[in-house]
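Quick question, first post here. What does this chain look like in 3D?
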Amino acid sequence: MKIIKRNHKDEVTWEYEGKLISREKNSATVEALFNRDDLPFQEIVLKHNDRFVETFFSDKWFNIFEIYDRDDGKIKGWYCNITKPAEITENEIAYSDLILDLWVDAEGKQVVLDEDELNDLNVDEELKKKIYASLGELKTFFESKNPPQ
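> Answer (accepted):
Ran it through. Tokens below.
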């Protein structure tokens, strides 16, 4: 499947391929390999060919990327993008990233990312409320140790 990432203005910023693992009424999960050079991130390193299990939702304002180390297969954590609901078709998943992200490490520690970037944008109050409500939903799922499936 082709995965299309758009920015908050709905402009395409990245495209890559993923293998469909499962498809439900309002979600799709794909497997994709990290296709960039090794990159230090938080307390880990995202490595070229790390395994990402990515779940996209057509009825939620976020996606969740479960990240596994390419060398030992251990979970590194979950990278969650606050997004508009994904558009999921038979061959394609497209989503629009709304800047704010949540990182949850393998021990469950949560870090909100890019809040300063969001504040620099001219986002209307209604959208900002939706963004923060979605962040709250994600935080609750991970605090309960029950991320959405």
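The first strand starts at residue 2 and ends at 6.
The helical segments are 115-120, 125-143.
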